[in-house]
Design brief:
single chain, 58 residues, mainly alpha, 78% helix, 0% strand
Amino acid sequence: MLEFQFASLAAFCEMAPHGVYVWPTYGLGLLVLGGLTLANVRQHRRAIRMIQRNLERE
């Protein structure tokens, strides 16, 4: 079975001396992934609009 490795939720959030490095890294990773997702969605919509315009011209 999985065991919780920290004494409490507060200890988990602090992660002893490493929390200062761990949480900003997770935040930056989520920010980058969110930005890439947003860029992909916008590019997809732009491509769909371009294809629709080209089909309307024909």
